[in-house]
Amino acid sequence: MFIPLRVYIPFVIPFLQLAYSTKPDCHPDERYVSLYECSHVYKTAWSWTLMREYDIDVWRRDRRICCPPPGNRIPSTDICGQSPLVPRIVGGSDARPHEFPWMAMLLYLNRSSLEILPLCAGSLINNRYVVTSAHCVVGVPDDLSLKNVRLGEHDITNNPAYDPKCRNQASRCALPNLEVGVEEIIVHGRFNSSFLGRIQNDIALLRLKMPVRYSTGIQPICLQNPDPFTKSRFEVAGWGITNNGSFSRVLQRGVIREKELRVCAGRIRFLDFNVHSQICAGGDGGVDTCSGDSGGPLMATVGRMDNTRIYLAGITSYGSQKCGAIGFPGVYTKTSAFLGWIRGLLRP
After folding, report:
1. Do 301 and 192 lie in a common domain?
2. How far apart are CA 14 and CA 11, in angstroms?
3. Domain end (from 27, 45, 67)
4. 43-70 burial by CB neighbour count: b if 16+ within 10 A, else e?
5. Is 35 exposed, middle or buried (0-12, 13-18, 19+ CB in 10 A)?
6. Per the domain annotation, does 197 fall within a domain?
């Protein structure tokens, strides 16, 4: 009576082995290797988020994963700065899902009310680091602390994972977002934010608690452009305050133009504008970055047609108290002036 059992077991085991050994779809810059060969993932503090992202099964003997590059590498243009081919609209408008997949929302814990508040933004530059403004992490109120970074966000009131319209593909939706804790905050050593002005070196790096995997909704922005930006046209994006005075629930985007030095020197001379480390842009009215957009990207598109890449030209720093006021441009930290600082701090 035990003969059938002895006959079928050899067929069951190869089937299970085949099911578990199927190679998943790895990203072009990932390697399919044993978990233990991918030390920067294996040595990361394990969490359900990490196990889900890398499909780690604790019961599986052969734990193989799609291993990303270590966190001290800057992605090449084969990976970074890729945005869907969508029409570029002049003026503020809702961004399309995944139009800027490097956008990062900084989430703060209010220790008094226990609320989670999205108060700043940032840009993903590789699978482990987000760049933002120093003033987003220095000098914040005592009852606030930076808790997490949310990637792949589009509409803060709607998580597609729980929306039946999205699950049934009845409407255009973004993919579910990913929230990752912040392991380390690195502020530029010469950051100055005195009340009387001289806001300089307004840049910080956030090291995430785990390396994230790239997807349609989560990708890095390019950092280093071999040629200086010759165009004065930039794009900005964020969930900050809009014309109606409230924070936007949907990611907003707009186009602004760089201003001549004489314009900036006249409007913001009391803040000691530095042409070598800052960019002055906007002030035409209607489109501007505002409260809540701090730390977000000033983006430059390089290339033509389907061979374009988007670079992080600047980081939203400060501007007029009346956002969008005609004649009052905003100031952005010039990323190219800090590339050496960024590269020198990246760790695997």
Report:
1. no
2. 6
3. 67
4. ebeeeeebeebbebeeeeeebbbbbbbb
5. middle
6. yes
Indicate the pairing of strand 64-67 with strand 31-34.
antiparallel
Contact 106, 116 (CB under 8 A): no
Active site residue 39: no
Half-sphere exposure of residue 38, counting CA atoms within 13 Å on the CB side? 22
Asked if 76 is an active-site residue, the reply is: no
pLDDT at 274: 85
Alpha-carbon distances, residue 326 vs 197, 211, 319 (angstroms): 21, 42, 12
How far is it, in rounded angstroms, from Cα 34 to Cα 21?
A: 11
Domain membership flag for residue 21? yes
Q: Does 135 qualify as catalytic in the annotation?
A: yes
Catalytic residue from among 202, 248, 293, 317? 202
pLDDT over threshold 80, residue 17? no
Q: Residue 274 contacts by C-beta under 8 Å, 6 or more apart in sequence? A: 200
Which ranges of the chain does DSSP label H, i.e. alpha helix? 3-21, 39-42, 48-53, 164-167, 261-267, 339-345
HSE at residue 291, side-chain half, CA atoms within 13 A, is 8
Among 101, 174, 195, 114, which residue's Cα sits nearest to residue 147? Answer: 114
Choosing from 40, 123, 133, 135, the catalytic residue is 135
The per-residue b/e assignment along 271-281, b for 16 or more CB within 10 angstroms, e otherwise, is bebeeebbbbb
Rounded to whole angstroms, how far apart are CA atoms 128 and 73? 9
Q: Which domain holds residue 247?
A: 233-339
CB atoms within 10 A of CB 133: 29
The pLDDT tens digits of the residues spanning 24-61 come to 789 999 999 999 999 999 999 888 899 999 988 877 76
Prediction pTM value: 0.85
Catalytic residue, candidates 248, 294, 320, 336: 294
